[in-house]
Design brief:
The protein is of the alpha+beta class. It is built from 5 helices and 17 strands. A 7-stranded antiparallel β-sheet has the order 11-17-16-15-14-13-12, covered by helices on one side. It is globular and about 70 Å long. The relative contact order is 0.15.
């Protein structure tokens, strides 16, 4: 079995910090065909094995460079459309039709595999060399313990995923960017509080609280999962999937528990989708106007209310330091 190998840092782009990233929704990958996803500046092929589990490889056949996502799924393998070479979920080349059955297959044909999982209808990819003991995949457990309906819209932004995340960690833009929607009537002057944990940041405007996660708050889980907790019956969750250095596919999923009867719930889903799309576009218009490189801005003058953004940048820098330290240890060994 091939061990999923260290993904390459895409050339002429950015260095992505390691961690679990939600890269797509589960229903984007059917059982009967491979799917191409561009993430982290790399073309990936994603497919399902016979048991339904997810596999992810580089979307290039080592033989002649054809796109594997143009091929087909055969059992636990994806078959290249050019000459039928078959690759399993660990990246091992398992069959060369031209050589006939039982032939010895050169190891050089094996391709890169990525560590992927499926949870809560998200497809998760661990970017970076996976440690022996993988960290837990992020989840907002309270949304999966009750009776919530979920509905997702997705948009591609011409902005880095870091810029999009930082926008969602910033409550005090609401009365300006969203003055005709969710920011209507909000005061321009506000105090923004936040608390930091190792892989989590929670922020809220208003008074200090003993319990940060009560009432309205925003919550971020490393590396790219976010929640806007409006009430116990309504939350909006986002996953910010990096396409490349300056493009992001943002998934916005509404969880609501106040109308769960199928037909009425479907109507509520549609209304929420229209509302979220309008709010999304208001954010997008501003965020794409910002400089997108370097990934972490180096020349901005942040203020006290930017505390959650500062915490996120520190978290990102820490993840990169830990990665470089691990790389140095491996090189020394």
């Amino acid at each position: 079995m091939n061990t999923p190998s260290q993904p390459p840092e895409p050339t002429n782009t950015v260095e992505y910090a390691p961690g679990w990233y939600a890269i797509a929704e589960g229903d984007e990958v059917p059982r009967n065909r491979p799917v191409k996803l561009r993430r982290f500046g790399v073309d990936l092929v994603v497919f399902r094995r016979k048991d339904g589990s997810i596999a992810c490889l580089d979307d290039r056949c080592k033989h002649r460079g054809a796109s594997l996502s143009l091929g087909r799924v055969k059992g636990d393998c994806v078959a290249c459309p050019f000459h039928g070479f078959e690759f399993d979920g660990d990246g091992a080349c398992k069959h060369l039709p031209v050589l006939g059955p039982g032939a010895k297959i050169p190891k050089a044909l094996d391709t890169r595999a990525y560590t992927v999982r499926e949870q809560d209808d998200w497809l998760w990819l661990y970017w970076g060399e996976a440690p022996k003991e993988l960290p837990a995949i992020p989840r907002f457990a309270h949304l999966h313990a009750g009776n919530h309906r979920a509905h997702t819209i997705a948009r591609e932004w011409n902005a880095s995923f870091v810029r999009v995340i930082e926008n969602q960690l910033d409550p005090f833009h609401l009365p300006f960017v969203h003055k005709s929607t969710i920011g209507r009537g909000m005061p321009e002057a506000m105090t923004v509080h936040h608390v930091e944990e190792e892989t989590r940041i929670t922020a809220w405007p208003g008074e200090a609280r003993e319990d940060p996660r009560s009432g309205f708050y925003i919550d971020f889980y490393w590396a790219n999962l976010w929640e806007n907790h409006i009430s116990d019956k309504l939350s909006i969750v986002a996953a910010f999937a990096p396409i490349d250095a300056t493009r992001t596919r943002t998934y916005l999923r509404t969880y609501q528990g106040f109308v769960t009867i199928p037909v009425l719930g479907w109507l509520v889903d549609r209304v929420m989708a229209l509302s979220n799309d309008k709010i999304f576009k208001q954010d997008e218009g501003v965020v794409v106007s910002q400089p997108q490189t370097p990934l972490i801005a180096e020349d901005e003058i942040l203020v006290k209310a930017d505390g959650a953004i500062i915490a996120y940048r520190k978290m990102y820098a820490r993840a990169l330091r830990e990665k470089h330290g691990a790389d140095a240890d491996r090189a020394a060994g």
